[in-house]
Amino acid sequence: MPRIPLTWLGEHVELPATASALEVATDLSRVGLEEEALFGAQVTGPLVVGRVLELVKEPQKNGKTINWVRVDVGPEHNEDADDPKDPQPGEERPSRGIICGAHNFVEGDLVVVSLPGTVLPGDFAIAARKTYGHTSDGMICSGEELGLGPDPDGEDGIIVLGRGHARGLTAEPGDDAIALLGLADEVVEINVTPDRGYCFSMRGVAREYGHATGAAFTDPAAAVEITATEAGGVPVQLRDEAPLNGAEGCTRFVALEVEGVDPAAQTPRWMARRLTLAGMRPISLIVDVTNYVMLDLGQPLHAYDAEKLVGPITVRRARKGEELTTLDDVERTLDPEDLLITDAGGPAGDRVLGLAGVMGGEDTEVSSTTTSIVLEAATFDPVTVARTARRHRLPSEASKRFERGVDPQLPLIAAHRAAQLIVEHGGGTVPARVTDEGSVPAPTPISADLHDAERVVGIAYTDEQVTSSLEAIGCTVAREGEDGLLVTPPSWRPDLTIREDLVEEIARLVGYSQIPSVLPTAPGGRGLTVAQRGRRAARRALAEAGLVEVNSAPFVAGSVHDRLRYGTDDARREAVRILNPLSEDEPLLRTELLQSLLPTARRNLGRGEESVAIFQRGSVFRARGGQGAAPVPAAAQRPSEQELEAILAALPAQTGALAAVVGGASGPDSWQGEPAPWGWTDALDLARRAAAAVGAELEVRQTEHAPFHPGRAAELRVHTADGDSRVVGAAGELHPAVLKEFDLPARSAAFELDLEAVIAAAPAVVRAVPVPTYPPAKEDFAFVVEESVPASAVEAAIVVGAGDLAERVHLFDVFTGEQIGKGKKSLAFAIRLRSGEATLTAEQIGETRQRIIAAVQSAVGGVLRA
């Protein structure tokens, strides 16, 4: 986010003399530039000018020599806080005694003194303290300690007025050094939306401040004198043979030479100070000037060492296999979509100099011996620059601006401004020749209507408000007929392409505060929907069971399907690919919640957790065959039903899911011993808890389903209104290979439910059950059935056999072995019988047992185990 020093901003727009960072941020927020942070003066308190009256060098036992200095800091500040036993100097004026370890100043010099109560950068508070046998009553300051950076003359040590950091400054003891050195500058950091790229410059922010307050704006670009007007500069060739989406990678390239620069010239203190306040580190005069002009005007620049450059400069796409070592010392393999700056300096006559609009290379880097340079100022395609920066994970100040759109009228102006600053502070000359290859495309006019803003925003704007707002942002407005307008956007606003963009500008400049807030009236008595209550109930049930809710992003890598052991024909591989993903490593939308939940579990364990018990409710997505692009409806009225249907049809299939992952110890150690580990039965129980919370009951059947262990996985079903059942999820122990892939504890388990389907299957009406008054009868049964018979089928037969007397049926044991027979299993159920009319007799219980045994025999062929 750009940082705006107020004194720099005040050069381009009239700021009130007493304007604070908070007031400026408030004004900018009215035109859509939101405050990100405020930075006050880096130095506060009594920082004053002092004159060195006496300097006594005192060698110490450790071999170090310190200076005991008496300093006159003006009548208002001269207080002797030194120990009375120390000898007092014989001067008539009082002074302060200060210990100092630097040796680059002498008696009579004017220095900068921070008195007790001063706070220096880094929240470093100054106080009187006893040291080396004296009371040091303040501190004599260096440029580094005041946040001014290295001394321009390369001299380390104390600031001495008249040289170095303070060259040309004169003052008297006691004068305010904060104002003298420009240390009171406040800074506003703002948040710039992607469509407002011109606000990544002081020029753009000053223009917006003028819109917000009516203050007079002075365009710094208009004040730049163009001196080089002759053709014949460095030859440049624009050869983009594979433009992206039909857009040329470079539409304009300016190359301007500066000769005879003093390589020892230093960046002026005011410029270094401004760069530091804006968040950039001063490096050298040439580099600092290019950064300064970029921050001021918004046009990124690059400087080449002219002695290392071999013309012609060619702008082209990369060839497969080409490599480049960028200025950050990283060797990069280039992609054919990358736009490059090249010259003829390579072994084969072709050398890559840099990634266009992103970062330069090492071969032609400006160094401490550079005396002649070539300044590059170009207009690059935003999409090309954005893709290159993301592909190489190389965000830069230049790419931030190019990918949002840079004023195509700026290259020649910015190159001359930089050249003039270099000549002013580093000597040299600017030849009359210049290269300006390419062209500046004319902005496309937009047809609009005087009443568009009123129709879209809903409030009446006068004709004057409409035209004056558009003209204020730099548009040329021509009338067409009675109400028609033909609006030509300015070159620095590439975001203005349709009439709705103009409506937004009118609403913004007239003031968002003028738009009344009309809130819809909520209908009374409805409350939450059934689905909303169900989602909340399911989440609450898992939280009450001890799980922690997390929120993983829906983006996954293509490799996750293999890591979860999906089959080649698994429908969960049909993922939606995002055209412009946040990360190139995760370009797909998840088709199952576990795809993003398992990496989250791994991350928590990697940060020191010894067990995991997490859950998430979120959306999952499935691709639809033959999806086209969604239509973009007009903003003037509500989309039609046909448009809404087309938009929905273009979206991927989406549903809400609920998933959980548990593994490791289920609780903390205690004097009772180690807690039981989470297991597959816990995953099943948690799934049932969530379903029960929304009023549904799950049917469990054994299955094989990735990513679960083939022998410890369950298919989860619900009964539908038509009497059938449908699969709504799966639960069980995760496959050992999946556990290894995600570094999860042994025997970790999970479940995932289609929560929307579970909620839909819950009965609409919950019937109250009377409290029983008669005692229950408890019976146990063990039935031998075929291994393929699900326990739920046996349970259903038991309920049929018991009829109205069945209160609860619970499976408590499953047994297989030689005693049962090959292909058989034993299912043991605990059954509670109860009558609502009387206590059950032994005869009634016996008859019910016989009906249950017969029902199981008839339904699934089950035999009561002896």
From TrEMBL:
Q: Give an example GO molecular function.
A: tRNA binding
Question: Which Gene3D superfamilies does the record associate with it?
Answer: 3.30.56.10, Bira Bifunctional Protein, Domain 2, Ferrodoxin-fold anticodon-binding domain, Nucleic acid-binding proteins, Phenylalanyl-trna Synthetase, Chain B, domain 3
Query: Known SMART domains for this protein?
Result: B3_4 (SM00873), B5 (SM00874), FDX-ACB (SM00896)
Domain TRNA-binding as annotated: residue spans: 41-172
Q: Name one GO biological process term.
A: phenylalanyl-tRNA aminoacylation
Q: Which CDD domains match?
A: tRNA_bind_bactPheRS
Instruction: Give the keywords, sorted.
Output: Aminoacyl-tRNA synthetase, ATP-binding, Cytoplasm, Ligase, Magnesium, Metal-binding, Nucleotide-binding, Protein biosynthesis, RNA-binding, tRNA-binding
According to the record's subunit comment, the protein's assembly and interactions are: Tetramer of two alpha and two beta subunits.
Q: What is this protein called?
A: Phenylalanine--tRNA ligase beta subunit
Query: Could you tell me which species this protein originates from?
Result: Brachybacterium paraconglomeratum
